[in-house]
Amino acid sequence: MENNLAVLIDGDNIPSAYVKEMMEEIAKYGNPTIKRIYGDWTNPGLTKWKNVLLENAITPIQQYAYTKGKNATDSAMIIDAMDVLYSGKVDGFCIVSSDSDFTRLATRLREAGKKVYGIGEKKTPLPFVVACDKFIYIEILKSQSKEDEEGKPKEKVNIDKVTPKVIQLISTTINDLSDDDGWAFLGDVGNLLQKKQPNFDPRNYGFLKLTPLIKSISNFELDHRESSKGNRNIKLIYVRNK
């Protein structure tokens, strides 16, 4: 059964140009049954959103800036999120913002047993990132959509380098899951990496999947195995430290 998700977007904090790719990404994790965006729609700076909202069936929520220096949009999103939580209509939330003000909200929703996906720019403060189950940087969604027929990015936008720290994270995770011969199932490795570091994503390093990322690093070796399940042969990938 597919998870129902509430998508809550901070209109003051996210560029409208990313919405198409963002909604396609969210669809991977569940069915966005509630889609709302918050902002002061009397502000000329938000006019770019108009067509985007119609095309993606996102409901705009008007929130006037009552006091200068205070972010009324954040308050409206938080209140709505709690209302949706208590309604029991969704299995998870997608909070779209680069604002650390939503850190406590993400933590509270997870305490209630809900999955929380965060989407924001790379400038998003770490406390909000780690408060989510998974955090996706919006820049990689835009660069991912700009691929040629061979599936290669036409342009790499802010691709991160695979640092020794990243290699150590992967290596330690493999050790955490490995059998007596040092092999670990790659699917389990990916899941544990996500739990340890919610913003871990192969796309941050220019790879669409974990397998090619691992293959590009000389510290690891892969083993492709076949397993029978019913009438089907399934290919399983295992990894270990060299």
CATH topology type of the largest domain:
Rossmann fold
Assign the CATH class of the largest domain: Alpha Beta
- Summarize the amount of helix as a percent range: 25-40%
- Biggest sheet layout: 6 strands, parallel
Order of helices and strands: EHEHEHEHEHEHHEHHEE
Describe the structure.
By secondary structure, the chain is an alpha/beta fold. The chain has two domains: 142 residues, Rossmann fold, CATH 3.40.50.1010; 78 residues, Nucleotidyltransferase, domain 5. It is 35% helix and 24% strand. It contains nine helices and nine strands. The strands form two sheets. The chain has a six-stranded parallel beta sheet with strand order 3-2-1-4-5-6. Helix 7 crosses helix 8. It is elongated. The two termini are 40 Å apart. 27% of the residues are buried.
Task: Describe the structure concisely.
With 242 residues, the protein is of the alpha/beta class. The chain has helices spanning 19-26, 49-55, 72-87, 103-111, 126-131, 138-145, 164-177, 186-196, 210-215; strands at 4-10, 31-39, 59-62, 92-96, 115-120, 134-137, 184-185, 220-229, 232-241.
Characteristic key phrases:
six-stranded parallel beta sheet, 2 domains, 24% strand, alpha/beta, 242 residues, 9 helices
Write the layout of secondary structure elements.
Layout: E1 4-10, H1 19-26, E2 31-39, H2 49-55, E3 59-62, H3 72-87, E4 92-96, H4 103-111, E5 115-120, H5 126-131, E6 134-137, H6 138-145, H7 164-177, E7 184-185, H8 186-196, H9 210-215, E8 220-229, E9 232-241
Parallel strand pairs: 1-2, 1-4, 2-3, 4-5, 5-6
Antiparallel strand pairs: 7-9, 8-9
